[in-house]
Amino acid sequence: MGGDIDLDALVANVRxxxxxxxxxxxxxxxxxALAVAxxxxxLGIWLTRRTSRLRAHPGQFALPGGRLDEGEDxxxxxxxxxxxxxxxxxTRETYVGALDDYATRSGYVITxxxxxxxxxxxxxxxxxxxxxxxxxxxxxxxVEPRYLRIPESEQPVIQLPLVGSLVHAPTAAIVxxxxxxxxxxRATPVAHLEQPVFAWR
Length: 201
Description:
The protein is globular and about 45 Å long. With 201 residues, the protein is α+β, with helices and mostly antiparallel strands. It has four helices and eleven strands, in the order αββββαββββαβββα. The strands form two sheets. Strands 1, 2, 3, 4, 5, 6, 7 and 8 form an eight-stranded mixed β-sheet that branches. It has a three-stranded antiparallel β-sheet with strand order 9-10-11, covered by helices on one side. It has one domain (2-142): Nucleoside Triphosphate Pyrophosphohydrolase (Alpha-Beta Complex), CATH 3.90.79. α1 packs across α4.
């Protein structure tokens, strides 16, 4: 099981991966943080549920992240958003590597940034953005996705059974590739995987 992987092997797998980048011309560039941290004896990442008060994608599952500021790169944006959303102060030294860019139906190109933080700090979620935080262990992440067909697209919609619910793309696609790359060393593409129609806006 990939959930039994140690941090050194996870880092080696991510560093060996060659991410695919997408042009951002005419699109908004965003970054998300896959922040690997240890809670007790378990390694995992944080997943959030966005508050219902947010204008964009309210109530949906997400990774800490957001749009790049002027002059900012993806790593800087992921670190800043991790601090703004969860109160976690991390440095560039925690950067391990990136996964494939994912283009969303709502006009974003998302760069997933993998960080290795060591022991998990105390979280201070921002109530203006985060309704709930889930510490998802690597074992819990090591699940097979579900695929649905919808009339609006020829591509399959990906769902991940996590945190007692179903997580959809773009978060599901990114987390699935993290599972494939980081836990199993498999360069599995996900850019073609579709989002549910409710996430297109």
